[in-house]
From TrEMBL:
Name of the encoding gene: Rsph1
GO biological process: axoneme assembly; meiotic cell cycle; spermatid development
Presence of the UniProt keyword Plastid in the record: no
Entry annotated with the keyword Cytoplasm: yes
Chief localization: cytoplasm
Native source species: Calcarius ornatus
UniProt feature coiled coil, ranges: none
Protein name: Radial spoke head 1 homolog
Entry keyword set: Cell projection, Cilium, Cytoplasm, Cytoskeleton, Flagellum, Meiosis, Repeat
Function: Functions as part of axonemal radial spoke complexes that play an important part in the motility of sperm and cilia.
Name of a matching Pfam family: MORN
Subcellular location: Cytoplasm, Cytoskeleton, Flagellum axoneme
Region (Disordered): 1-30
Organism superkingdom: Eukaryota
UniProt xrefs under PANTHER family: RADIAL SPOKE HEAD 1 HOMOLOG
Length: 212
């Protein structure tokens, strides 16, 4: 069903309201039969998008309310979260920063609601990767991350005015000989990196970016 403006060829053009066969509805601007311009799209499952469209795709600036209560407000390119935007997750965590192909990608800040801690730094395909700072209530960690875990040189900076320098080392997986046969198919679990302290100092200007 459609009620609204049409062009000379009878296609939806201008402002209109439509109900789609699947029960979704759209109210907004059209260009020659396609959603283009500003509009609001309500999904039957309770989700809602309000923002810019280009040829039926979310493109430009827009806000998406997901059925689980989470919400994204920011840039879109061809139906993907891409550019800069803020995501409020269902558990109350937030991410503010750069996106590509629907994933956190580039520079961004992720705030953990439960602890108040925040990760400020680089992301690659949704995963913490690259130079970053992990800020807690009374101390912070500066270093580099790889696949979501800290790895290599870094330092903990304490609010009382001192620093602990060291590095995160990836422990080596030790295989138990007798269990070899039965566990062949199971990949070894990645072990948590271990922090090794090298020295305690007064505050220094070192940052993970210095090594690039």
């Amino acid at each position: 069903e459609y009620e609204g403006d049409r062009d000379g060829e009878g296609q939806r053009h201008g402002f209109g309201k439509a109900r789609l066969p699947n029960g979704d509805t759209y109210e907004g601007e059209y260009e020659h039969g396609l959603r283009s311009g500003h509009g609001t799209y309500r999904f039957k499952n309770g989700a809602l998008y309000t923002g810019d469209y280009l040829q039926n795709k979310k493109h430009g600036k827009g806000v998406f309310f997901y059925p689980d209560g989470s919400k994204y407000a920011g840039d879109w390119v061809h139906d993907q979260r891409q550019g800069y935007g803020e995501y409020l997750y269902a558990n109350g965590d937030t991410y503010t920063g750069e996106w590509a192909n629907n994933k956190r990608h580039g520079q961004g800040t992720y705030v953990y609601k439960e602890t108040g801690s925040k990760y400020v730094g680089c992301w690659v395909n949704g995963i913490q990767n690259g130079p970053a700072e992990l800020i807690h209530l009374n101390h912070r960690f500066k270093g580099r991350f790889l696949n979501g875990k800290p790895l290599g040189r870094g330092k903990f900076v304490f609010d009382i005015g001192c620093e602990q320098h060291g590095e995160y080392i990836q422990p080596v997986q030790v295989k138990e000989i007798e269990k070899e046969e039965e566990d062949e198919d199971e990949p070894p679990l990645p072990l948590e990196p271990i922090w090794k302290v090298s020295e305690i100092t007064k505050l220094t200007p070192w940052s993970p970016h210095d090594e690039e």
